[in-house]
Amino acid sequence: MQIAPAPIGLGFGGNLGDPAGNIRAAIGAIEARGIARITACSSLWRTAPWGYTQQEDFANLCALGETRLSPAELLAGLKQLETDLGRTAGLRWGPRVIDIDILFYDDVKKDNADLTLPHREIFRRAFVLIPLAEIAPDLMISGRKVGEAAGEIDRTGMSKWDAK
């Protein structure tokens, strides 16, 4: 029996090598590997580092899509893809080739050591809210409209990727 596709939101980031190219490669690989079908992508954003600040700016992007995988299978597929694209274990919030977060998976609420849905930091990170609001301002997550939440967050340190 095939399950119906579930709507998902993904957040992408990276600051090593060619960050924009790495994000594009990740999106292409997600579709090529059958992990998910991507239906919308935000602009690419340049973002000042968060957490550990002694590093290069990040490229960030959010995407909407749908998957037939369970949340656990989706997470496993994305983690394998990160490894295949060159991500290695390192400093928390430190430099990385690619980072892919599951922002939401349908209306699933989950909180365990492996996965929290929706992502627990979604409403605290401009580098998630601003790109997500760009493609889905009316999206409701945990009773909050993404566009309204994005309008209330500090955008300091963010600009479109092509802008210097």
Written account of the structure:
The protein is of the alpha+beta class and 164 residues long. The protein has one domain (6-160): 7,8-Dihydro-6-hydroxymethylpterin-pyrophosphokinase HPPK (Alpha-Beta Plaits), CATH 3.30.70. It contains four helices and ten strands. Strands 1, 2, 3, 4, 5 and 10 form a six-stranded antiparallel sheet that branches. Strands 6-7 form a two-stranded antiparallel ribbon. A two-stranded antiparallel ribbon has the order 8-9. The longest helix is centred in the N-terminal third of the chain and has 14 residues, at 19-32. The model has no long low-confidence stretch (mean pLDDT 92).
Describe this structure in a few short sentences.
This protein has helices spanning 19-32, 71-84, 126-135, 146-151, and strands spanning 6-14, 37-41, 45-47, 58-67, 99-105, 110-111, 116-117, 140-141, 144-145, 158-160. The chain is an alpha+beta fold and 164 residues long.
